[in-house]
Automatic annotation (TrEMBL):
Flavodoxin-like domain residues: 4-190
GO molecular function, one term: FMN binding
Entry GO CC: membrane
Protein name per its UniProtKB record: Trp repressor binding protein
PANTHER family attached to this UniProt entry: FLAVODOXIN-RELATED PROTEIN WRBA-RELATED, FLAVOPROTEIN-LIKE PROTEIN YCP4-RELATED
Length: 201
């Protein structure tokens, strides 16, 4: 059984939902799934002043914060983050910066990884954000399982070959219907991880 970690950062709840869909798709593919959030770095005052952010913090309070041990446990990892000027949020970057010990021991080599993103504009940096995550993954020696155009469902979700991405309006609603694409991406990630795991035994 493939062990999958779904790791997200979310302020408005979009990437919480993407992560839940990914977990559902992966479980349908037979994986053991754990969902994690990264540690929040923003001051409490900033969160308190934003109702959507505050609600997301409350909604995700029982989801555990990811640790390097969780990466070691996983055969595969799916990341889900909003874009910050075409890059990943600092909260996710800070977590990735703690993985040097695992990297030095070669414990991240051949992890199968994939990523998703969101932004408030169709061209608000989603693709660049996913690629910024993959840059770290290449240093790990991980295997990127991007959806590409391996299934027509990608086109229905906007056609991002690097990973599912979604546009979110000012009220926090997703513009594109991406649930099927997210679940397909998760299943593909689990399938590739199964090939790697079974071929390595």
């Amino acid at each position: 059984m493939v062990k999958l970690a779904v790791i997200f950062y979310s302020m408005g709840g979009t990437n919480v939902q993407l992560s839940k869909w990914a977990a559902e798709g992966a479980k349908e593919a037979g994986a053991e799934v754990k969902v994690f959030k990264v540690k929040e770095l923003a001051p409490e005052s900033a969160i308190e002043g934003n109702e959507a952010w505050k609600a997301t913090v409350e909604k995700t309070k029982d989801i555990p914060e990811v640790t390097p041990d969780d990466l070691e446990w996983a055969d595969a990892i799916i990341f889900s983050v909003p874009t910050r000027f075409g890059n990943m949020p600092s909260q996710m970057k800070q977590f990735l910066d703690t993985t040097g010990g695992l990297w030095a021991q070669g414990k991240l080599v051949n992890k199968v990884v994939s990523a998703m993103s969101s932004a408030q504009n169709p061209h608000g940096g989603q693709e660049a954000t996913i690629l910024s995550l993959y840059t770290t993954m290449y240093h790990w020696g991980a295997i990127v399982a991007a959806p590409g155009y391996s299934d027509p469902v990608t086109f229905g979700a906007g056609g991002n070959p690097y990973g599912t991405s979604v546009t979110v309006d000012q009220d926090g609603n997703m513009i594109e219907d991406v649930e099927a694409a997210v679940k397909y991406q998760a299943k593909r990630t689990v399938t590739v991880a199964g090939w790697v795991k079974n071929g390595n035994q």
